[in-house]
Design brief:
By secondary structure, the protein is α/β, with parallel strands linked by helices. About 20% of the residues lie in helices and about 10% in strands. It has a 4-stranded mixed beta sheet with strand order 16-17-5-18, covered by helices on one side. The chain has a domain at about 140-175 and about 290-510: Alkaline Phosphatase, subunit A (3-Layer(aba) Sandwich). The chain contains 11 helices and 19 strands. It starts with 15 loop residues before the first strand and ends in a 60-residue tail after the last helix.
């Protein structure tokens, strides 16, 4: 309900346990509900002891969503729920059940090959973390609440790829998935057998459960941030692929998996460093690096440049590229992965966030700007907090608002790369093998944004591309990218397109015929100065 307590539909979110038999499945046999949620874990949350049941939370939480800020301050650091590709597919299921978020987190966790996370088949250090949420109605995220009240939000915007950060940032700039290429720009096979820290490892995913582990029936064979992250999804015989392909086939949805392509579905380092040098010049498999992406994967930077539209991608901590700070997130700076940018003068379009502040002050902001803050300000669970991300975006909105010539012709879109692994009840549209994933916030701030408007149109990261293409009259990036999908047809008040797969272009959030003269800045002092 509005107070964050269990409401009349609480039981619809109850989490179940499963009893898998054999290979990876999107719908393993269920074996009843959790009586209570397992106590959420601290994982690596800043300011908390690592990898223990989090003493801030009860050990007997009701089986369902719970408000995080009932037990910790909104400005505190929660643990980090698992958010990886095959895990999220299994959590969501093949009927949008979403009833295995906790069980998958408790059994598969973040995978078996990782550095420094301490996960084992006996303890994945998750508990019921995935069921936590924040609640604007009780005071959480007050700045975002103001933006929602004075501007427009979507309650049907989704991460584009099941899982985590890297693949979703790449989708934001391509509407597609990156793949493993050789030096000639041809699809190739990633390393499948090498030793990393004394353990035999492959870069190819295998989410089938290991045998012989009596206390964990769902501990994946090959997965993790230092393990499997590629998948050849055109081949139904590849491990973990058939259940997803079968589900898509039953719906008449194409997989968008090219023959012989091994797609990256989780986090690997990008092919270039911020200074333009190769990240892995010797092709060392233990560096877990996505090779440089060739022209076969078009990106929005190249498309804008070809049209003569100015653009920049601003990243916190990037500096001039020669010595990024520890808070620079390389996988969150996705255009550094592309040969067409990093080996040409277009590399100069990749800037530090401080350059954005200078551009705002000087009136030299480009036509299209992507902005990613320092890692500690990015709102990621455990190593950042939502409150700091909210402060960062509020400051940015107000800086633009204070420059009328810029504000009067700007639309600011605020979102996340992905949902952090948290449970969400919203509908997820199966678009292809890669997703969509769970809903995430999107706020549109502009003097043209509809005041207090909540948009139900179905969106994902490719909608940002469609909006850019609509405004600057660009073609879709490629024949297979998601910006080709049609605009959704949805009866009023509904969330599911009847002409799917389909995604919108964000234009419903705006009325470009109506300029709101008094559209306000964001402040803790709530006024109703905007009566338009």
């Amino acid at each position: 309900d509005g107070e964050g307590k269990p409401g009349r539909n609480f039981k619809l979110a109850q989490q179940k346990k499963a009893d898998p038999k054999g290979a990876y499945s999107l719908d393993p046999a269920h074996r009843g509900n959790y009586t209570t949620l397992p106590q959420p874990d601290t994982t690596y949350a800043t300011g908390q002891p690592g990898n223990i049941p989090d003493p801030r939370f009860p050990a007997d939480l009701k089986n369902g969503p719970f408000q995080l800020s009932r037990y910790m301050a909104f400005s505190d650091f929660p643990g980090d729920p698992v958010h990886r590709f095959f895990q999220m597919w299994q959590q969501v299921g093949n009927k949008n059940q979403k009833d295995l978020f906790v069980w998958v987190a408790e059994t598969a966790g973040i995978g078996n090959h990782n550095d420094g996370f301490g996960t084992t088949p006996d303890d994945t250090h998750q508990g019921g973390l995935a069921m936590g949420f924040f609640n604007m109605n009780t005071g959480d995220a007050p700045f975002f609440k103001q933006m929602a009240d004075f501007y427009a939000i979507s309650d049907n915007y989704h991460q584009a790829i099941m899982g985590g950060t890297g693949a979703n940032f790449l989708a934001l700039v391509t509407g597609d998935a990156a793949a493993f290429y050789d030096a000639n720009g041809q699809f190739a096979v990633p390393p499948t057998s090498f030793t990393y820290q004394g353990v035999q490892t492959s870069q190819v995913e295998n989410p089938n459960p290991q045998t012989g582990i009596s206390n964990n029936p769902n501990w994946y064979i090959e997965d993790g941030y230092r393990g499997g992250s590629y998948v050849n999804c055109a081949d139904s015989k590849q491990l973990g692929v058939a259940p997803i392909l079968d589900y898509l086939t039953s719906l008449g949805v194409k997989s968008k998996c090219a023959a012989s392509a091994y797609y990256l579905v989780n986090n690997y380092n990008l092919g270039y460093k911020a200074d333009g040098t190769l990240s892995n010049p010797t092709n060392d498999p233990t560096l877990f690096t996505l090779p440089p992406q060739p022209s076969g994967l078009p990106n929005i930077g190249d498309a804008l440049s070809a049209k003569g539209v100015t653009w920049r991608y601003y990243s916190g901590g990037r500096g001039n590229g020669t010595s990024p700070t520890a808070d620079y997130c390389g996988i969150c700076d996705p255009l550094t992965g592309f040969t067409s940018l990093m080996t040409t003068p277009l590399k100069q379009n990749l800037k530090d966030v401080n350059d954005l502040y200078a551009d705002i002050a000087a009136g030299t902001v480009p036509s299209v700007a992507f902005v990613r803050p320092l890692e500690q300000l990015a709102g990621h669970p455990a190593n950042a907090v939502l409150a700091l991300y909210e402060n960062f975006t509020t400051n940015l909105v107000n800086l633009v608002h204070d420059q009328p010539d810029l504000w009067n012709k700007t639309a600011i879109l605020i979102t996340y790369d992905e949902g952090g692994g948290y449970y969400d009840s919203g509908y997820i549209q199966p678009l292809d093998f890669f997703g969509d994933g769970t809903r995430i916030p999107l706020i549109a701030v502009s003097p043209y944004a509809k005041k207090g408007f909540v948009d139900h149109t179905y969106y994902d990261h490719a909608s940002v591309l469609k909006f850019i293409e609509w405004n600057w009259h660009l073609s879709p990036l490629s024949a297979r990218s998601r910006d080709n999908l049609p605009t959704p047809t949805q009866p009023a008040g509904t969330y599911v397109p009847i002409n799917g797969p389909a995604i919108g272009d964000l234009t419903t959030l705006f009325d470009f015929r109506k300029f709101r003269q008094n559209a306000p800045a964001i402040t803790l002092v709530i006024t109703d100065q905007d009566n338009d």
